[in-house]
Amino acid sequence: MTWLPAASDTAQSVDLLFYSVLVLTGLMTLAIFALMIFFGVRYRAGSPADRTNPPPRKKWLELGWIFTPLAIFIGIFVWGAVVYAGFYRGGPDDAMTVFVVGKQWMWKAEHANGRREIDELHLPLGQPVRIVLSTEDVIHSFYVPAFRIKQDAVPGRYTSIRFTPTREGEYWLHCAEYCGTDHARMGGRVVVMAPAAFAQWLERGNQNPSLASQGFELFRRLGCSGCHVNSTVHAPDLAGVYGRVVHLSDGRTVVADEAYLRDSILLPKRDVVAGYEPIMPSFQGQLDEGQLSALITYLKENQ
Amino acid sequence: MPTTPFDSTLERREADLLGIWAFLVTEVLFFGPLFFGYVHGRLTHPEAFTAGSHHMHVVLGTLNTAILMTSSLTMALGVAAARGGRKSLRTWLVLTALLGLAFLGIKASEYWMESSEVAQASGAELTFYFLYFAMTGLHAVHLTIGIGIVAWLWRHASRYGAAYHSPVEVTGIYWHFVDVVWVFLYPMFYLLQRYSA
Amino acid sequence: MTWGYLGEGYTLRSWLTTHDHKRIAVLYMVAITAFFFLGGAAAALMRMELATPAGDLVSANTYNKLFTIHGVVMVWFFLIPSIPSVLGNFLVPLMIGARDMAFPRLNLASWYIYVLGGLFTAAALIAGGVDTGWTFYTPYSTRFSDTNVVLVIVGVFIVGFSSILTGLNIIVTVHKLRAPGLTWFRLPLFIWANYATSLILLLATPVLAMTLTLVALERLFNVGIFDPALGGDPLLFQHLFWFYSHPAVYIMVLPAMGVASEIIPCFARRTVFGYRFMAYAILGIASIGFLVWGHHMFVSGQSMYAGMVFSMLSFLVAIPSAIKVFNWTATLYKGSIYFSAPMLYALGFVGLFTIGGMTGLILASLALDVHLTDTYFVIAHFHYIMVGGSVMAYLGAIHFWWPKISGRMYPETMGRIAALTIFFGFNLTFFPQYLLGWLGMPRRYHEYPPEFQVLNLFSSAGAAVLAIGYLLPLAYLGWSLFYGKRAPANPWQATGLEWQTGSPPPQHNFDAEPVVTRGPYAYDPVR
User: Do A269 and B47 touch (CB under 8 A)?
Assistant: First the structure.
């Protein structure tokens, strides 16, 4: 049997919760089994135990074993919910964003500086990371057991999860949502390195421009700047748009995050900004996931 | 010879009525996901659904609503006739079936006209049309089955009188259900946001 | 002694055109047994493949088809019909003092519908299988799989109607055909359990039918509501699918709980502890069970807040189940316990259901589920409940009511050996899977990292023992039909109206309509 390392902050908090709940449920199970065995032996047919007036019910006992488990369960729920909320909190300000795309049957990662990886993900020790997931075909799931994190990649949207690696080493990466023939082969490894070593690795062998500059090139080439920068066309100014509170024409207010920007590019008629006409064309089908993430990174950094 | 589990016709009628109501609950849940998909679509793609509703034939839809509701009236009169042991049962059943067929005819003509328009749609507007065809189509299937049952009742109408008529009642309840479903579908597809931009 | 309903005609035709709920129950029993062994064969091949890390026994595509057919067959063609359609059909009218179900011809139609659904599913298998998993997630099932998805959907759609009509029949029967004096709170818990199950059958199954129909339409016509490329949403599929499939697991476990509540009082010779709360707990499980479906979707991309609501409700649904476990345990207190084969199955059910339920609590906890979902931990959890739980209860029920159904006694020693073999084999198969899941082995993997081999080997060895365990009852129950001792009307000295008539019962069940004057389980351990 092997042992699963706890290689991230999330792993440590999950393990504490897991072992606590395991001990608690284990004790409850053993108590029930002990009672069943005790009764089974003591009251077996033919034994000399006292069987007069077996109680058909005992109200205080029954209520007791409703409300005691209820209190325990609420406690476990709250603890689990709090740890879980930590996987999704906060924006990208303090976390390094890595775009990961799943496709049958491989994982493609792209770092902010443009360095790309396939079936591998290098990360620096001690730095909060936010994986932004998308998929080119079916639902996949990005699972790193050593980090205790898992997040589905769903077509048509972005999903994300956040953690901080706390231990150097190499860890399994698996696809955890059945996705066809080679689902079992869709995986690889996550490599956690000391920050200096990671910085070197990031630069070395990278022939691509940064995601943001790729995005800027697309922004001009596809004509976005034609409407959104110094134009006679009445289109929202995108400088500093990321993280801004946006008022939509139907009265709702949203924060412009990656999902909002993605939808604005692919489904522009959906969430129209108040005071503007729905005249932006859709770029659905003209951009792959890599290009989308580049555009969005450009917009994020274009403050 | 098969044993009947009931001690009286009254007991059997009560069971038949409970049975049809329980069955209709399953029908509500059967249509349910489609209604849910419609609500989901309207909430997430309101502009596309509004655009779709502009292509519906509201005059024909309204006419069909009147036809179907009248058929519920004739069906109810048929049930009353069966309870009273009256011969007019057959007349009411025929009228109900004919009105049902008229509904189907008008629906078919709408489908004919819409199919060419729909072929050009895409994205969420296509979803609107899909839900329109799926929901009114499923409704039409249920209506067709109902017409079949009404025809069967007409054929065996002499069996039903004051003493025993629960098949007519059960069919009546089913028919009204089919009508009620339409009462929801009509505003959903023909009226909502038809007149907004 | 006569052969009762078994003696009313010996031709195949008399069986295939019967309106007798008892004969229909036997028809179901034969059919679901065949499907059990089909689903089991798929599992056997899977466990053989998984004995080694390399995917070398079957191809990846074949393995994917194996786990799909295993799930489809076991869930829809074995577990869901098992207790309600076999034992429910046989026992509900008997237990309430009726001559038959409310709609006997509809009952026969339900069986034919089941068979038709089975034929379509078998056709899908023969045509090359399906590789979507029994969960049919989109867009893989609608646009990417190139297997016989529509054919198997037709099969599942059709068999769903069999479930719905069986549930409808049980509900109307329990409402309208109870014997004089049989008030609701004098009903055996088996009736409560099957009644609540029937409510779920009625309310949940149609949602599945429509959801799968939409998958088929999207696949056939390239229009729909599940594929983002068509303006749809894959999560919409998941919500609709799990809205049915979570209550479905209660369809599979509530009848098993009903069985345990019949067997344990009988072999402890005392009334069940806390009858009222047991009945309320059944209703509680059925109703809260409709509110927890999102716990299958904690990492799906649904909102974090939705996750929290579903998690809290999932903890709540565990409370009525816990009540039942405590009450079964308390039913042993001051009893006079006889460890017959049915009792071994029933106690095994309680123990294994408890373990499965505790791991359910672990999975209900959001942060833990992120790590454990889609791993072997979940597989172990649901097999503890459905196999360690429901299958053991089904076998216990078959043994307990075998004298009533067949007029024969089964060999008791063989019964106990089989129960213990199954219990041991089951734990050896599935306990290692909890460890595999925690260590990070994902599910639906036909090859895996080599460090998982030892645990997988234990699991495969257990599967071999389990297979033997399941073959034993097939053999000796079959043997008993010809050579078993002739059964008396009430071999277990049990309460319950079904025991007040012959073994097997006459076609019309009771010579005189029973009148009920007291509650169930009037056992006395002292005598």
Answer: yes
Name C346's Cβ contacts closer than 8 Å, sequence gap at least 6.
C259, C260, C263, C264, C267, C392, C393, C396
CATH superfamily of C12-500: Cytochrome c oxidase-like, subunit I domain (1.20.210.10)
Q: What is the DSSP letter of C28?
A: H
- Nearest 5°: the CA angle C320, C325, C326 is 95
- On whether the pTM is more than 0.80, the answer is yes
Handedness of CA C116, C122, C123, C129 (dihedral sign): positive
Give the chain C residue whose CA is nearest to the CA of B31.
C210
Within 10 angstroms of residue A57's Cβ, the number of other Cβ atoms is 16
Which positions in chain B touch C225 (Cβ < 8 Å)? 37, 40-41, 127, 130-131
Q: How many CA atoms lie within 13 A of C86 on its CB side?
A: 28
> CB-hemisphere CA count at 13 Å for C455?
23
- Secondary structure letter of residue C293 according to DSSP: G
What gap in Å lies between CA B148 and CA A110, rounded to an integer?
A: 62
* Complex prediction ipTM: 0.94
Selected residues 140-159 of chain A with any CB under 8 Å from a CB in chain C: 141, 143, 145-146, 148-152, 154-157, 159
Q: Using an 8 Å CB-CB cutoff, list chain A residues near C440.
A: 4, 143, 145-146, 172, 174
Give the orientation angle of helix C304-330 with respect to helix C341-364, to 10 degrees.
Answer: 150
H or E element in which residue A106 lies: strand A106-110
Picking from C358, C366, C452, the nearest residue to A84 by CB comes out as C366
Contact B130/C99, CB-based, under 8 Å?
no
Give me the mean pLDDT over the C327-344 stretch. 97
Nearest to C3 by CA among A136, C13, C14: C14
pLDDT value at C324 more than 90: yes
Taking alpha carbons only, the member of B30, B5, A205 closest to residue C207 is: B30
Per-domain boundaries in chain C = 12-500
- Hey, what domains does chain A have and what are their CATH numbers? 1-27+62-207 (2.60.40.420), 211-301 (1.10.760.10)
Contact A2 C351 (CB under 8 A): no
Q: A81, C375: Cβ pair inside 8 Å? A: no
pLDDT of residue A76: 96
pLDDT value at position C93?
A: 97
Range with the lowest mean pLDDT among A7-11, C119-123, C217-221, C226-230? Answer: C226-230
Closest alpha carbon to C236 in A154, A250, B122: A154
What residues of chain B lie within 8 A of the CB of C220, using their CB? none
For chain A positions 228-257, those within 8 Å of chain C (CB to CB) are none
Q: DSSP assignment, residue C486? A: B
Residue count of chain C: 527
Note whether C447 contacts A184, CB cutoff 8 Å: yes
Mutate: best of A270, A272, A277, partner B, most B CBs <10 A? A270
CB distance from C370 to chain A under 8 Å? yes
Residues in CB range of C131: below 8 A, 6 or more apart = A180, A181, C61, C64, C65, C68, C145, C147
Q: What is the pLDDT along chain B (197 residues), one digit of tens a residue?
A: 345 788 888 889 999 999 999 999 999 999 999 999 999 988 888 888 888 888 899 999 999 999 999 999 999 999 999 999 899 999 999 999 999 999 999 999 999 998 888 878 877 888 899 999 999 999 999 999 999 999 999 999 998 988 889 999 999 999 999 999 999 999 999 998 777 65
Domain B24-195 superfamily per CATH: Cytochrome c oxidase, subunit III, four-helix bundle (1.20.120.80)
Per-residue burial over A104-125, b if 16 or more Cβ lie within 10 Å, else e, is bbbbbbbbbebbebeeebbbbb
- Chains contacting C (3 or more CB pairs within 8 Å): A, B
Using a CB-CB cut-off of 8 Å, the residues of chain B touching A267 are 123
